Hints:
By secondary structure, the protein is α/β, with parallel strands linked by helices. The protein has helices at 12-18, 36-59, 83-96, 111-118, 138-141, 150-153, 200-210, 273-277, 300-317, 335-344, 353-362, 365-370, 390-398, 440-450, 494-498, 519-524, 629-635, and strands spanning 22-23, 175-176, 196-198, 217-219, 225-228, 231-237, 245-250, 256-259, 283-286, 323-329, 349-351, 380-384, 406-413, 427-433, 454-457, 595-596, 599-602, 605-608, 611-617, 620-623. The radius of gyration is 25 Å and the shape is globular.
Amino acid sequence: MSNVGKIKIKAIADLQATIRINVEPDPPPTTEKSTPKQKKAGRARVASTAKKIQPKAEACPIIVGTPFKRSSKKTPLPGQMRIDSFFKSAVKNYKVNMVPNSASKTVDPPLDKRKENSRRRKRLFEESTTTFSASTDKRDAKPPEKRVQPSRRAKGKENAITESDFGDIDGVTHYFLTHFHADHYIGLTKKFCYPLYVSPTTARLVQTFIKVDTTYIHEIEVDQTLVVNGVQVTALEANHCPGALMFFFKLSSGECILHTGDFRGSADMESLPIFWNHANIDLLYLDTTYMNKNYDFCHQSESVDRAVYLVRAFIEKNASKRILIVCGSYVIGKEKIWLALAKEFTMKVWTESNRSTAVRCLKWPDLDSVLTEDPREANLHVVTMGKISYPSLVDYFTLFEDQYDMLLGIRPSGWEKNSKPSYGKRISTIGIEYSEHSSYKELERFVRFLKPKRVISTVPVGRNLFVTGDVPTQWYKYEGRASMLSTGYQPSISAFLATPKRVATFSSDIEMFLSPVQENVSKGSKDKIPDHVSIMSSTMEESFRNESEIPVKNEPLGPESFPNSEIVAGNNAMESEIPYVEMDIKNETLDPGAVLIPCVPMEDKIQSTECNVIEVQKGEVVLVSRLASDAADDWLL
DNA sequence: GCGATCAGAT
DNA sequence: CACATCTGATCGC
């Protein structure tokens, strides 16, 4: 619950030091499980993989489950970099416009080739890195003319994507699945026999629904880094459905590739240390589902509020009636809406058995606590989205008309932007604008923030599913330095302070990630909230003095009180302003108002600057957060 | 017979 | 339209 409106990220030093670098084992031999064909392919791959993996174990430090104490930073482990040294090199790299070195060329397919292939892809399984040529999208590895299964394919639709396009792809040895939505795991079957990297949540779903042999499933958690065949793979929260990840690949050549999977971009993502530690992203695979100016969604918490508001109004207006509420959903996704309704109106929830199974896989206690097996004891039913139409609901209502007088159907969807509620005598439906993909603005901001060298959309446009969208080049080919290191960047914290919080609504046990920026709210609150906060003096807390929500200690502690204060904020604070970074400080006791000294980049030098502890929760410091929306507005001019 | 795959529907 | 399935038909081991 406390994660709503903010994300739990680790300070850069924390990330650097706690980075769990594990060397994954080779894909197990596939002998018994595979068909003859697979066997052959599998063996070949194992052989080549084994060759590659060996030297890597030497080159990379292996720190498995090493508990990290910030104070131990004095001796950075090999391969780790302190924030200050990072920024020095990063700035330098940027200036010389470094290109990936040639070291990887010998083993890796050329990037251009992958690009070529990737241009034809819909987003499905995730692209890996060149060292092990992992893409899970068959089209990436097999040009159309090489495809087998002519019998059905030949019948016309050249552009159609079928399951034969996915799954076992020639030359691909490692697979990354961002999340458990059906259009992303096409081709994944029980017989799958390659390493598959997924979040723990997705792992449970894959095991439960597809019954992939657990031998092949490798879990990677949010913010965790694994080394796979010499490629550093870091999982990032995607802010999509439960368990959804983005994958950040750093090749041995230094080349960085981010695959967003399906995601909803958020200003919080701009605080992710990995982006600050890797200012140069060579290639971005981007979910451009709503890359159209017409799509401008409200924050999810607003959607939830609206759903609650409309349902309350409906209930009050029909106070004498027995009302069945039916909410549309996918197998996973949209839980926040129905959970909020269940809690707000103290309703039990019944859902179809497949979703019920899926929900159990989520290990989200709040969801479990409201679910019931018996539809007749639940006033809230969660059903597949397709059933939330008037004719379907009429049918549905007949099943329960002995128990209810009215039925209210709810459609939470990005497409419900301007839909009007339809109130009938017995059957009513309302649409709730609710998106788990980025809005146009969120996309633009995300791309501008990352300023990758190249962007490839993963979402097809039009009829030809092999053609994906064109991301506006001005989003990333603009003058100046990468936005993360931009000298012109002047973030403020006002939007963060104005972020509406729905603290009580969501589970505390599952880290739900909500993008907190709500532009109009922050604008409307400008009177109350300081536009900028000086962090150069220890009198910073003055800025908050009138902000009742921000606890302030009168006597700010000096930096000498924090011997470990080199846990630096990953930000580019310039001059007198600093973006927030939420820091996770478990081993220190800090009070609100305390002053920390983060190192921040100033041109090519590192300078220290002070920042305030704004909020403390459970021994964790919530402080300097992300880049504020005001700054983004400037970019978007 | 059943899992995998496909086309089409919502 | 389509966000992501879902269904019913067909293929093929």
